[in-house]
Amino acid sequence: MTARKGKGLRRKTRDKLSLHVREHGKIKIRKILQEFNIDDKVVIKIDPSYNKTMPHPKYHGMVGKILGKRGECYEVLVNDKGKEKIIIVHPAHLEKFKGQVSPVQAS
């Protein structure tokens, strides 16, 4: 008999949730304490070394809009294949968006 295939949240994420060799180690405190304003555009970039309120890996790399704050975390509005979803993300997994939004993501 073979072992049953794992079905956890982090399956098939070896490359997606792995850091570059120079980024290993302790997370920077400024990343945990960073602040965002409502209606800011942010990129969800999961930091695998900080597991607290980590979003599902399918949201990694998506651009969203800050709707509000819930405790230490932020409510982020994300367009998931035409359906808008609100996900709760810790600021350690968010970065300010620097760039232009494609026409698909703008709507």
From TrEMBL:
Pfam families reported for this sequence: Ribosomal_L21e
InterPro entries recorded: Ribosomal_eL21 (IPR001147), Ribosomal_eL21_arc (IPR022856), Ribosomal_eL21_sf (IPR036948), Translation_prot_SH3-like_sf (IPR008991)
GO MF term list: structural constituent of ribosome
UniProt GO cellular component terms: ribonucleoprotein complex; ribosome
Keywords of this entry: Ribonucleoprotein, Ribosomal protein
Keyword hit for Ribosomal protein: yes
Highest taxon of source: Archaea
Gene Ontology terms: biological process: translation
Family (UniProt): Belongs to the eukaryotic ribosomal protein eL21 family.
Protein name, entry field: Large ribosomal subunit protein eL21
Natural source organism: Nanobsidianus stetteri
Organism lineage: Archaea, Nanobdellota, Candidatus Nanoarchaeia, Nanoarchaeales, Nanopusillaceae
